[in-house]
Amino acid sequence: MTFWEAILLGVLEGLTEFLPISSTGHLTLASHLLGIPIESDNFAKSFLIVIQLGAILAVLALYLPRFLRDLEVWKRIALAFIPTGVIGFGLYRLIKDRILGNDLIVVCALIGVGVLLLFVDRWLQNHKRYDDVDQMPLAQAMLIGVFQGLAAIFPGTSRSGATIVGGMLSGLSRRAAAEFSFILAVPTMLAASGYDLLQSASTFPKEGFGIMATGFVAAFITALLTVRWLLGFVSRNTFVPFAIYRIALGLVYAAFFLR
């Protein structure tokens, strides 16, 4: 992987991490187009995990005042992280060695979650009960954590897409579901990136950390712009365009890369 490829993938990560369209699916597809053998390159797999943290830290920069003052949000983050942590750490080796980079799983997840998002958005548009994360019952936060954990197992699902679906099923408005998805990403990706670096850093090529840092910074800067835009968009619109885009992308992906 070159530094220019790292910048390109970092920008793509920053653009897609918080949209319910699967950053991993886009990065896997882009890696194929760039000729990066993600299915067999351990460094490339770690790169795709760690640059997500760059995008996530953009949320920390934007939401730091709320993190510092809002105990109710912390309670819900902690409870949601429990099932995510159990699933993610318990299945880490399976996900890293066997699942990440699997084209069939990515295609099925892109299309399947696109259909689910389309259904949930239309079905629940008049059934929201909570306009703020603080109003959501604590037990519902754990349900959202389960959705996020399932997204970790199946690349192409979209962590943000899964948590937004889980949030809307729990009664959150579109904006509140998106906001909780953003906030919940912080401890999740801190843990995932840190754990992967502990497990894999010793195998990285000599220039690996420089390439990873380049993608990390590109993702951070791009995500700062994307988060603000998405919150404004979902305040005025539905998730239907994202659902349709996912389905179309999955079909294109299948046509070119499934054999």
UniProtKB/TrEMBL annotation:
<feature type="transmembrane region" description="Helical">
    <location>
        <begin position="176"/>
        <end position="198"/>
    </location>
</feature>
<keyword id="KW-0812">Transmembrane</keyword>
<dbReference type="Pfam" id="PF02673">
    <property type="entry name" value="BacA"/>
</dbReference>
<feature type="transmembrane region" description="Helical">
    <location>
        <begin position="210"/>
        <end position="232"/>
    </location>
</feature>
<comment type="similarity">
    <text>Belongs to the UppP family.</text>
</comment>
<keyword id="KW-0133">Cell shape</keyword>
<keyword id="KW-1133">Transmembrane helix</keyword>
<dbReference type="GO" id="GO:0050380">
    <property type="term" value="F:undecaprenyl-diphosphatase activity"/>
</dbReference>
<dbReference type="GO" id="GO:0008360">
    <property type="term" value="P:regulation of cell shape"/>
</dbReference>
<keyword id="KW-1003">Cell membrane</keyword>
<dbReference type="InterPro" id="IPR003824">
    <property type="entry name" value="UppP"/>
</dbReference>
<dbReference type="GO" id="GO:0071555">
    <property type="term" value="P:cell wall organization"/>
</dbReference>
<keyword id="KW-0472">Membrane</keyword>
<feature type="transmembrane region" description="Helical">
    <location>
        <begin position="104"/>
        <end position="124"/>
    </location>
</feature>
<dbReference type="GO" id="GO:0005886">
    <property type="term" value="C:plasma membrane"/>
</dbReference>
<feature type="transmembrane region" description="Helical">
    <location>
        <begin position="136"/>
        <end position="156"/>
    </location>
</feature>
<feature type="transmembrane region" description="Helical">
    <location>
        <begin position="43"/>
        <end position="64"/>
    </location>
</feature>
<protein>
    <recommendedName>
        <fullName>Undecaprenyl-diphosphatase</fullName>
        <ecNumber>3.6.1.27</ecNumber>
    </recommendedName>
</protein>
<dbReference type="GO" id="GO:0046677">
    <property type="term" value="P:response to antibiotic"/>
</dbReference>
<keyword id="KW-0961">Cell wall biogenesis/degradation</keyword>
<comment type="function">
    <text>Catalyzes the dephosphorylation of undecaprenyl diphosphate (UPP). Confers resistance to bacitracin.</text>
</comment>
<feature type="transmembrane region" description="Helical">
    <location>
        <begin position="76"/>
        <end position="92"/>
    </location>
</feature>
<keyword id="KW-0378">Hydrolase</keyword>
<feature type="transmembrane region" description="Helical">
    <location>
        <begin position="238"/>
        <end position="258"/>
    </location>
</feature>
<dbReference type="GO" id="GO:0009252">
    <property type="term" value="P:peptidoglycan biosynthetic process"/>
</dbReference>
<keyword id="KW-0573">Peptidoglycan synthesis</keyword>
<keyword id="KW-0046">Antibiotic resistance</keyword>
